[in-house]
Amino acid sequence: MSQPDPKTRTFRNELWRSLPAGVLDTLSATFGMLIAVRVFHMGDMAKSIFLSATSSGMMVSLFVVPLLLKARSTISRTAAKVQILGGGFMALSAVFHDNPWMYIGGLSVGLFCFSMQIPLLTQIYRLNYPASERGRLFAIAGVTRAATAVAFGFFGGWLMGLDLAYYRWLLWAFALSGFVSGLWTYGLPVTPWDIDEATPAGLWSALRWVKLDHDFRTLLISWMMMGVGNLVAACLFVEYLANPRHGINLPEQQVAWIAGVIPVLARTLTSYPWGLIYDRVGLFTVRTILNLIFAAGILTFYLGHGVFLWGLGMALWGVANAGGNVTWGLWVTKLAPKNAVAEYMSVHSFLTGLRGLLAPYLAFAALKVMSFQSLSVLCGIAIVAASAFITVRARGSDDETRRRLGPGERL
């Protein structure tokens, strides 16, 4: 019996993998922090460790590609093994669920593993998805992932509302999701990855593209400006609503609904349209629009009062996050040569991880000297400034830049 073509097989496996991935999204977005605050009453340092785990993995991803080249392994199976390892660490947190440091340690290392293999998946999308459909196919899997996160967010909020001690069953669900995600990744096509023998193999070799590619460098600067503002605000969503010392102190189920379900539901409804937009509109334009929606969502959430405005802010942030996921995961495919996508993505992930690693510490430190409202205004200014930066660059673009960053991609 003949195997499906690489595009079909990749899309099928990614659809199935999006189910456990959606469950894991609720860990990093909502339940990890909610359990840390309500069950273990952890301090700022422990919460910052958890919030920075994904970012730490992204930073290490810079070294994954050179090591993979040296090992002569396959892309999909390497990614799968790392995911299964992450599921194993999450299982440790479930086994020792009464120990707060095993809880934080197991989940943090698990998320670290999942984020360090992101550039490998991006390379798979570049090799197996045609350029004209890449955004659409990526977005369909994203819709499934977001819908799963909504459903599990409802379930998890309901379960913890019944009895806070039931959080241990959520930990087992996260561990199982890690294993299942790895199995579906392992089944992705073993596509040949033709690497130029002259390609430098040093651990820092991917950074050469920052010097060589002006458009890449420009967009990385913009992402850094926007990302710091967005991540500082985002890592405090649950803290703002759940921690009694800030005066709001909503019930667990309501926190899960506002911070976990609403933004993911908005992401579910708008991911597919953003995928179509990505395939048809220039990257500078898409990025500018998304930044403005991110800023509007953050300001509405922190400057508004009451459940309606908190929910509206989270909905706007979820709409922007839908488009942000598509552009964040695929934009390097427009710039990079075919077999350098993983290297470009590893640099992008490294810088994302760097700002994500710093963001929780910056956020909690900032709260010692200013209010949530003042901090949100600063975050909004940083995001709008990033839009202004790339708008100026877009107006001065030459024909080559417009070709690379418009609809379609570099061949």
From TrEMBL:
<feature type="transmembrane region" description="Helical">
    <location>
        <begin position="137"/>
        <end position="160"/>
    </location>
</feature>
<feature type="transmembrane region" description="Helical">
    <location>
        <begin position="254"/>
        <end position="277"/>
    </location>
</feature>
<feature type="transmembrane region" description="Helical">
    <location>
        <begin position="49"/>
        <end position="69"/>
    </location>
</feature>
<dbReference type="InterPro" id="IPR036259">
    <property type="entry name" value="MFS_trans_sf"/>
</dbReference>
<protein>
    <recommendedName>
        <fullName>Major Facilitator Superfamily protein</fullName>
    </recommendedName>
</protein>
<feature type="transmembrane region" description="Helical">
    <location>
        <begin position="166"/>
        <end position="186"/>
    </location>
</feature>
<keyword id="KW-1133">Transmembrane helix</keyword>
<feature type="transmembrane region" description="Helical">
    <location>
        <begin position="289"/>
        <end position="308"/>
    </location>
</feature>
<feature type="transmembrane region" description="Helical">
    <location>
        <begin position="21"/>
        <end position="43"/>
    </location>
</feature>
<keyword id="KW-0472">Membrane</keyword>
<feature type="transmembrane region" description="Helical">
    <location>
        <begin position="218"/>
        <end position="242"/>
    </location>
</feature>
<feature type="transmembrane region" description="Helical">
    <location>
        <begin position="102"/>
        <end position="125"/>
    </location>
</feature>
<feature type="transmembrane region" description="Helical">
    <location>
        <begin position="344"/>
        <end position="363"/>
    </location>
</feature>
<keyword id="KW-0812">Transmembrane</keyword>
<feature type="transmembrane region" description="Helical">
    <location>
        <begin position="314"/>
        <end position="332"/>
    </location>
</feature>
<feature type="transmembrane region" description="Helical">
    <location>
        <begin position="375"/>
        <end position="394"/>
    </location>
</feature>
